[in-house]
Every structure is written in structure tokens, then in C-alpha cells.
Design goal:
The complex is a heterodimer of chains A (about 110) and B (about 120). Chain A has no helices and eleven strands. In chain B, β5 and β6 form a beta hairpin. Classes of the chains: A mainly beta (about 110), B mainly beta (about 120).
């Protein structure tokens, strides 16, 4: 079993929709949870990170972590075509440690 | 913000030759650099972790003699794929971390697409 599981999609939504992206993880030692956005043939770009459980909001993006169920979510409100990309969740047990990535979910927002 | 420059962005080489990929932190000192490999529609898989001035730590299944990593300075790490074969064709990405705080240094390079023919 991979340490981080993520549905690869693809996920297609109309512009303006609320997008929900999710991951599950198996290692209870993970403390840091991140979401990256990756455009085709580019390196990942950090969108948000949270430490331990809880919510974090940044503009149209909200990250949620539920450590009791080992569930990570990213919500995108008012989705735009420019949000079309692959979204990767990642975890780490400690600051400075290498990241454990999910497979990435391909998102397409249609005008 | 922190910038990591990776070069080249894409390279095509003949089977049996070696290819060097450079990863530079432009405005911060990268005490740790990570090298990942990503196959199409797959996740980033960690290959190795390198700390400046010491030998890299390789993940299980990654041949250290084939993927040579050098982290000789706080701003530069190189990955050399030796005697490349078609199965080494992949997207290689580096990331750099400084010691400033949790995750602030997790900046990724733009990746190198290696094609071995």
C-alpha cells in the first residue's frame, strides 16, 4: 500500500464550480500536509501547507486535514480555466524531510 | 520568493552516454536537496537526498553508481545519469530546502525531461 493515495482522475468541471480534491494516507507520523499544483512538463508549485489537523484558507483555496481519518482535502472555489493542472498532495513527518507524494489528480476546468 | 533553477529543461541523448542535470538555488542556501523522478501520469518518486558536503542518501532500488549526485556547494547539486538507457527516460525534478523553517524551502525546479534513444 502506498503511503499516500490519490485518485488520478481526470476530473472535469465547468468554470465557477467548486472543486474538491482528496487524498488519504496511512502513516500516522505524518505532520505536514501540502498541496502542489503542477502544469504540464513543469515542476510542482506549492499551493498550501498545513501542520497537523485543521483548515487553512488562502483566497479561493481551502486545505483541510483530518488526522483522525487520515484524510486530506483541497477545495477550490469559483474555479477558473487557469486552474486546470495536476494537483498533488504530499506529506512529511518532519520539517526538512523528503515528501511523500500522491499520484496527482488531473483537473480540467472548462469555460 | 525562493527560486530553484534546473538545467537543462530537456535533453535527448544516445544510449550508453552520460547526462548531467544541474539544480541551483538562486537566492538562498540549500542545505538539503532532493532528487525526484516522475514517469507519465505517475507520482514523484524520491530518488535521493543530498546534504551539502556529504554523500547522498539513496532510496531503496535506486542505483547510486548509476545516478551520481554531487552537492558540493550550498547552491548547487548535480545529478549525473551514467550509461543512460531508454528505461531511464523520465522527468527528473530537484527540490531544495533551507533551514529557515518548516517547508519554506520546499521549492522545486522546473524539471528536466530526459529522453534516451
Amino acid at each position: 500500500q502506498k503511503e499516500v493515495e490519490q485518485d488520478p482522475g481526470p476530473l472535469s468541471v465547468p468554470e465557477g464550480a467548486i472543486v474538491s480534491l482528496n487524498c488519504t494516507y496511512s502513516n500516522s507520523a505524518f505532520q505536514y500536509f501540502m498541496w502542489y499544483r503542477q502544469y504540464s512538463r513543469k515542476g510542482p508549485e506549492l499551493l498550501m501547507y498545513t501542520y497537523s489537523s485543521g483548515n487553512k484558507e488562502d483566497g479561493r483555496f481551502t486545505a483541510q486535514v483530518d488526522k483522525s481519518s487520515k484524510y486530506i482535502s483541497l477545495f477550490i472555489r469559483d474555479s477558473q480555466p487557469s486552474d486546470s493542472a495536476t494537483y498533488l498532495c504530499a506529506t512529511s513527518s518532519n520539517s526538512g524531510y523528503a515528501l511523500n507524494f500522491g499520484k496527482g489528480t488531473s483537473l480540467l476546468v472548462t469555460p | 520568493g525562493a527560486v530553484v533553477s534546473q538545467h537543462p529543461s530537456r535533453v535527448i541523448c544516445k544510449s550508453g552516454t552520460s547526462v548531467k542535470i544541474e539544480c541551483r538555488s538562486l537566492d538562498f542556501q540549500a542545505t538539503t536537496m532532493f532528487w525526484y523522478r516522475q514517469f507519465p501520469k505517475q507520482s514523484l518518486m524520491l530518488m535521493a537526498t543530498s546534504n551539502e558536503g556529504s554523500k547522498a542518501t539513496y532510496e531503496q532500488g535506486v542505483e547510486k553508481d548509476k545516478f551520481l549526485i554531487n552537492h558540493a556547494s550550498l547552491t548547487l547539486s548535480t545529478l549525473t545519469v551514467t550509461s543512460a538507457h531508454p528505461e531511464d527516460s523520465s522527468f527528473y525534478i530537484c527540490s531544495a530546502s533551507d533551514s529557515a523553517g518548516p517547508l519554506v524551502g520546499y521549492t522545486f525546479g522546473s524539471g528536466t525531461r530526459l529522453t534516451v534513444v
